[in-house]
Amino acid sequence: RLYAIQEAMKLDESKKTATTKQWMSAQITALEENKVEVSREEAQKKILTMANNVFKHADEIDRAGNANKTTAAAFNSAFVFYTILKQFGDRQEEIVEAGKYCMFKTTDILKALKEGRKPKP
Question: Over 80: is that where the pLDDT of 36 sits?
């Protein structure tokens, strides 16, 4: 929701209709009602844990030689989680490298499938 609201707020004022403004207001209210108090450090730790878990799952499938479109989607999700960590400041080099590897594997697997060949682990 937050991302959708942020993108909607970027719209030119002339493109924001009454309906759009009403929707944005309703979404902001819903976010406020569902807000959970979490420290930045705790949020960062949870996101990193999630990224690592998704990465580990995708990597195990890939290394077993069973990569498919779902595996590529998992690598892509891990990449997104690693990217989200940018909001907490500079990331450790290993996190940056893990993100790059996830994007590489996403592209590599999808390219192999498109070409009709089995992705290489």
Answer: no
